[in-house]
Structure formats: C-alpha cells, structure tokens
Amino acid sequence: MGSKEAIRKLINAYSFTLDNGDLEGFASLFSDAEWVFDEGKPYVGKQELMDKLLSRVVIHTDGTPRTRHLSTNEDITVDEAKGTACCHRYVTVIQQTAELPLQVIYSGIYLDEFSRNSNGVWRYRKLTINRPFFGDLNHHIRTSGG
Question: Does domain 3-134 have CATH number 3.40.50.970?
Fold first, then answer.
C-alpha cells in the first residue's frame, strides 16, 4: 500500500471509529499525537483526549453517537524523504436521533499532520480543526460533565 492510501485509511479510521462509538479506538489514533480545536489548548495523547473530549460524546441506545463524519476535498501531500505528510480537508458531520431529524450539526476545516515511524507505519502527529460551523450539537456533545 502506498503512503497516500495508508494516510487515507487513517483519515477514514477517524470517521469510522467515532461514528461506530469506538471511542477507545478513536483515541488510539492519537496515542502519540495532538488534537487541537479552533486554536484552543491541544489534547495530547490518548488518555487526555478520552478524559477531556470523548467523555462528553453522547452515546445513544444503539451504542453510537448516531453521526456520520464526512471528509471531502482531501488534499494529501507526502514528503517520502522526511517521512511526513499533511492533509487539508473539510469535515461535515450529520446526525439523526429519535428526537432530531437528519441534519448537518457541524462542519470544519481539518489539517491532519502525519509521520511515518521506524517500522514504516503512518501515524497521526497532529490534527488541527479551524473555522468551525455549528448546528444543533445537543444530541452529540454534553456541555458539562456526566
């Protein structure tokens, strides 16, 4: 598998794990990485992401957040010699619950940064989300603990 395909699999794993309610799997993508939202303080590593962000995700009776994270306009650039890559993309999140009709609840511009480890495996290094648009997030993210 080429580098761009491996990176695209990581990008897809971001959506698939989160949308399937696999919050541990999602956080594992960032075990050695930073996750930054709209110039805020970065969440560093799996545990911090679990504790400070993913603990607020609403999981519905089917075991999922009832969302679909859609990545579009992916522009992947790879520097094979340095073992680094980046991707600019748009992410749009749609959601439907028993109380919420199918609708867009969020959109943002994502900058993914990747690095290849000594075993040749691509991993997230940093994800930065910019210029978000918000819809009704009440069925997706709790604004306070619990």
Answer: no
